[in-house]
Amino acid sequence: MPSTGTREAPLAIGESRRLSDESAWTVQLNASNPDGAAVVAAENEYLPGPVPGEAFLIGNFSVTVDADALAGQGIDLANEGAAAWAHVWFEYVAADGTSFDVTSGTMCFTNGALYNAGTLYADGTSTGDVCIAVPVDKLPGGLWRVANIQNDNVWISPE
User: Fold this and answer.
1) Distance between CA atoms of residues 111 and 41, nearest Å
2) From CA 31, how far away is CA 53, in angstroms rounded?
3) Please, which residues have CB within 8 angstroms of residue 57's CB and are 6 or more apart in sequence?
4) pLDDT digit string, tens, across residues 9-30
5) pTM value?
6) Second CATH level (architecture) for the domain 16-156
7) Tens digit of each residue's pLDDT (9 = 90 or more) over 123-142
8) Could you give the CA distance from residue 137 to residue 118 in angstroms, rounded to a whole number?
């Protein structure tokens, strides 16, 4: 069991960890903006802002893939490719245990969204933003949670 990156001992901004020993994915939170409405508005004038009582939380993540680990799972990265956004999911878990993801609340995204980072066909890293609408009263004390389909996960402090 890892000693860091758990809910009890989350990673700090700038720290990275593989989701699990068996996982091909390593994640790192580069920056976290709990009030990203101005960023979203500046990049896309057609998106509505957050509703009253809601904030746009933006996390900039780097997600690195290990081709050898994927090969062990039967995936040929060189020929099949892998997109971070299709293999790794992001949510924000409030201190009271409620969670929010990209399908929660008002839709938000930036021009540098992680899902625009493309597919990797060799060992490499995708970097981009994840935007989640979160009730303002749920922001204090919450954590980012990043997981794969096997539910291996890493917890990261947004501060």
Assistant:
1) 11
2) 23
3) 32, 33, 34, 36, 92, 100, 131, 132, 133, 134, 139, 158
4) 999 999 999 999 889 999 999 9
5) 0.93
6) Sandwich (2.60)
7) 899 999 999 999 999 999 99
8) 34
